[in-house]
Every structure is written in structure tokens, then in C-alpha cells.
């Protein structure tokens, strides 16, 4: 019977859950006595356990990075364009692990999970987590899977920050680091965008100080606004102009403040509506704070080269020309620091009009460069 999925798909996948009972001490000073991590795997781990690749997700990502959950699934995992047979992360060669980070809302322990101290959802009582905390929890996951050293740790945006942190926190456990459309720390402008998004959620009357689950409500309006603001920053001006321009939904202007008149307005409202129905408000706050706090060079007085001096991995850094949220200049900061630290690094800047979201899109030049680097890893 022929497969209902494309030939280059990993096909049907099933999420798995691992329970960790050893307390995890967090950067904020609190700890989690126990927690769950949800993950998926694609491909086969070789006998030497040397072909494992970790996928780190971005702000709204999760463990479902490739393949399908059921035969009627119309939408594959969020990075399906890059993971699968013959794709840049080739599952005929690599054993791929993708997880939902702590604090997430897709199965791993987070604000929607029961707080063992109260029996009610954590809500706002869930501790603040950092990129470093995530990497420590991911290392424990690797231990449980019998992976002593990753062939590569790969991620885009916030995922790229995690990949970098791996080379700092566990230098001997990473052979290659692939950081895509990322940055060594957020700019003031990026922190400002995150704060606007957080305030949209925090000021929603249905937020109830983060305990909206107990009130049977959702901060839907706040989440919609947060997603709309975020989505604007993920796209370039050229991409929005080409996709929408000043196109109208109807033939005539309504001349009021409530009608959806422009196509771009309709698009943003749709994105906000869809997102607010599947994502948790407290998780959004946690993820944006993790972005804001990431600054590994701070440990060495702002000297990123000194921070990266401990790394033993080879590096591949990629950026996109129209990405103004995580501009190529920020990727070049990473490359410059790695060069000063005398690390092996290659850099690819892809000419692409899609903005920050380009790392999720199967752009031929991007896939070619990405695949070329990954093909070197097992040689």
C-alpha cells in the first residue's frame, strides 16, 4: 500500500514523554522538584550513538518539528522543510530529537501543568526560566536517551541561542553548532517589542494575574495583540508589500474604526485569532523573558569571544538579508567573536525577501547551504 505522505517525509510520528524526578535548580533561584519533557525523534540512532542531532525551537515552537501525527494530518511539523529523507537534516543519516521546552504549553511541564503544591494549574506561579535552564534540562534528556555527544545542536532564532549556549555550558557534548537567524543578545528595540507584547497580555482583563485557567477565561485579546505585534516583526517590508500591498478586502472604504478594510489587517487578525486559541499567555510571557535575559557574554564583561573560548564545536552561522528582527549584523557579531576565539566557523548570508521568518521557509539557496554543511558532519 503506497504511503499517503510525501517520499521525503519522516511519515507518522508519535510524541513521547519523559518524567524527571531529580530537582532542577533554575537561574531565578527556584527549582522544579520534578517535570516532564515531551519530545519526538526521527531517524535511527547508530551503534556508535554519534549521529544524534538536537533541534531547539523558537518562541512559539514545540516538539513537533517534522512528519505527521495521523494520516489525515494536513499540516506537517513546523520545520518539515528541513528535516526528512534527502533534506538538509537527512533522517537517513541522522537521529533527530526535537522537544518542547520547559515552560511550554505543548505537553512539557509549564504554566498549564498542575502545581504539585496546590493541585491547581501553575499559572503565573510557574518559575521564570532561561535559555541556560533549558539547556540543562535538554542535557538530562540526552542522558536518558544515551546520547553523550550531539553530532549537532541546531536552532533558529531563540533556538539558535540555545544552540550557542550548549557550546558554552556543555562544550564536550557538542561537535557542531548551527545557529540560524539568531543573535548573541537582544537589542533594546527587540526587548521593547517583547515588552509591548507582554503588556498586551498582562493588561487583558481576562488575564487575572496569570490565573485565568481557574477563572475559566483566556487572555484572548492580549494574546491576539501580542501575536500581531510579533508577526509584523517577523516579516520584512518587502514581503508584506508583495503579499498585501494596500489591497482592500472590499471595493469601498468603510470610513470607520471597526471594519477590516485592508488585506493586511485581515491577515494580522487571522494570525492573532488562530494563535490565541492554541498558545498559553503565561508561556508567551516566559518565552519572551528568556529571550530578553539571554546574554552569555555578560559572564566575561561583555566579551563574547572570551565566553566562547571554552567551545569545542565547529560552527555554522546563517542569516537572511531582510531579517531586521535578528539582522545579519547580529550573526556577524557571533562570527567575529568565534574568529577571535580561534574557532572553526562558516557563515552564510542568504539573500531572501521574507524577513525573520525566512528560516522556516524552503528557500533553495538556504536549503542548499544548510544541507552542504550538514553533509560534512558525518564524513
TrEMBL record:
Pathway: Amino-acid biosynthesis; L-methionine biosynthesis via de novo pathway; O-succinyl-L-homoserine from L-homoserine: step 1/1. One of its GO terms (molecular function) is homoserine O-acetyltransferase activity. Homodimer. The record marks 325 as: Important for acyl-CoA specificity. Its main location: cytoplasm. Pfam families: Abhydrolase_1 (PF00561). Transfers a succinyl group from succinyl-CoA to L-homoserine, forming succinyl-L-homoserine. It comes from Pseudomonas mangiferae. One of its GO terms (cellular component) is cytoplasm. Residues 51-277 form the AB hydrolase-1 domain. Its EC number is 2.3.1.46. InterPro entries: AB_hydrolase_1, AB_hydrolase_fold, HAT_MetX-like. The active site is at residues 157, 323, 356. It is an enzyme of class 2 (transferase). It is found in: Cytoplasm. Belongs to the AB hydrolase superfamily. MetX family. It catalyses: L-homoserine + succinyl-CoA = O-succinyl-L-homoserine + CoA. Keywords: Acyltransferase, Amino-acid biosynthesis, Cytoplasm, Methionine biosynthesis, Transferase. This is Homoserine O-succinyltransferase. GO terms for biological process: homoserine metabolic process; methionine biosynthetic process. The gene is metXS.
